[in-house]
Amino acid sequence: MYADLPPFGCTPQAEGVELQPFSRKTSVFLGISLITDDQACSAQVRFLASTDVESRSAHFSLQRLGREELLFLLKEVSCAGERDRQLWKVYSKKAHQMVASCSVEELCDIVRALCRVHYHRWSLLNAVKRRMRSREIQSLSPRRFTQLLSDLRRLNFVDGPMLQDVLKHWQFEEKIQELDAFDLCLLLIAFARCSMREEERVSTISQALRQKSSDLTASTAAGSLYAMALLDYQDDTAFFLAAKALPRCLGHASQQELVNIAFALVVLDLPAAELFSFVLERLALQADTLEPVAVHALRIVAHAVKFPEALRPAMRNSLEVPEIKGRSVKALQEVLGKTQHMAIQCATTSSKLQRAIERYFKELQVQHLPEQAVGPYVPDFILPKKIAVEVDGFTHFYAFSQRLTAKSELKRRIFNALGWGVVSLPHFKWLPMNHQEKLVYLVEQIEMAGGAPITVIQKTPLEGFSTSKRR
C-alpha cells in the first residue's frame, strides 16, 4: 500500500506545479500529509511549508491518520534518526489513542520506534505495559519478545515485577528451547538490568545458552558474561564463556564489549587472568577513543588489579602469574596514562535519607563530609579514621532480596582493599528504627568500621579532603 509514496524530503507534484523540496526536518513533519493524501494534499503541503510547521502540521493532518499509516510513519521517522521532541510528543500522543486497537506486534513496533530515538512518553508506555501484562503476549515470537524487553529496558521502563509478569504470560518455561543464543543473551541482560537474581530462571537461561554455544558471537558471549557478573551468578556456562567462547572471538568484540568483559572478570570468581590480560591489551590500543563511562569502569578495574584483595580468590590466584600480571599492569598503565586528563563528574545526588542521616552525625559530634572521592568511588559520607558511610537504598540490593548487588559488593571490597572501613546503612534496617535505636546502631557501626571507640573518633579531625566531587 506504500509503493507509490514519495520519499521523505520530497514533495508530490500536482496540477503541473513543481514544489520545492523541503528540509529534512520539515519533510518529516509533513510525512503524515504525504501518507494520508494523494494529489489533493498539495495545497495542504504548500500551506504547511509556508507556516509554522511545529504548531500547525500535526493538528492539521493527524485527525485523518489511520493506525497502519501511523505505524509506518513511526518506523520511517525513527529509522531516519529524527529526535525532535516536539515531533515525538505529537506522534506519541496519537499512538496512545490507538493502543487499544493495536495488536501486540504493533505495540512492539511502537516501543521499538520510541527506543530508536530514546523518547520517553510515560502515559503511552504505561498503556502498552497494561496490554503486555496479559495473555495477549503469548503470540509474540521469541525474537519479538526478547527485543521488546530489550527496548523497554533501554527506555528504563521494565522492573522486576513487570519482568516476572511478562515471563509468566509469555509462558517462558514452555518456550525457553525456542530462544536462540541472541535471544537468551537479551533475556539475561533484562534480568541483570532489573536486578532480578531469580536463580532458578537464570540457571534455566544459562543452561539453554550453554546448549547453543556453537551460535555464540563476540557480542552475545560478552553480553552474557557481563549479565552474569551483574547478577553475581556463575556456573559452568560462565566458565565456558571465559575459557572457550570469548578467547576464540575476542578479535570481533567492540570496545564497549571489551570493557564489559574486563569489568565482569573482576566481579566474578573465575581463573581467567590470561583472557583478562588480552582484553586489557586490546583496550590499551584504543585508549584514545574511550568514553568517560568506560574510563571510569577501567579505573575500577585498575584498583582491583593494584589491590588484589579486592579480587575473589580464583581470579586473584590466576593473576599472580608474573607474565600475565605484567601484561595486565602495563596495559592498564597505558589506558590510565592516556585518559588521566579525563575528569569524570560524580553523578550522585543527596537523597532525603542521606540528609536525614547527616543530622545524626551532627548530633553525635562526628566530623563528616558528603560525597568525597575514595579511589574510583564516591561514598555517601566519609568520617575520620578512614570510614566510608554507604546509605544503601533499594537499588543497592537485588529485587525482592536483602542481598547486595555485585557492583555494591565490589565497591565494598575495593574500599576495604584501600584500607577503609565501611558503615552500611541498609534501608530495611534503618527505616523501621526509632531515633534512639538509630543513634545506637550508628555508633556501633562507626566503632566497628573505625576500630576505635566513638569518643576517639569524635576527637579525630577529618583532614585531606576538599569539596570536589571529581574522581
By secondary-structure content and strand pairing, the structural class works out as: mainly alpha
Overall form: globular
- Which series of helices and strands comes N to C? HHHHHHHHHHHHHHHHHHHHHEEEHEHHH
Alpha carbon gyration radius? 27 Å
Q: What percentage of residues falls in helices of 4 or more residues?
A: 55-70%
Tell me what the structure shows.
- Residues 387-444 form the RAP domain.
- It comes from Durusdinium trenchii.
- This is RAP domain-containing protein.
- It holds the Pfam family RESC8.
- The chain has 471 residues and is mainly alpha-helical.
- 59% of the residues lie in helices and 4% in strands.
- Among the domains are: 133-246, no CATH class; 254-344, no CATH class; 352-459, VSR Endonuclease (Endonuclease, Chain A, 3-Layer(aba) Sandwich), CATH 3.40.960.10.
- The chain contains 25 helices and four strands.
Could you give a short description of this structure?
This protein is mainly α and 471 residues long. It is 59% helix and 4% strand. This is RAP domain-containing protein.
SSE map:
Elements: H1 24-29, H2 31-36, H3 42-49, H4 53-61, H5 67-79, H6 85-98, H7 104-116, H8 122-132, H9 142-154, H10 160-170, H11 172-175, H12 181-193, H13 199-211, H14 218-230, H15 236-249, H16 255-267, H17 273-285, H18 292-306, H19 313-318, H20 322-339, H21 352-364, E1 369-370, E2 381-383, E3 387-392, H22 406-417, E4 421-426, H23 427-430, H24 435-450, H25 454-459
Parallel strand pairs: 3-4
Antiparallel strand pairs: 1-2, 2-3
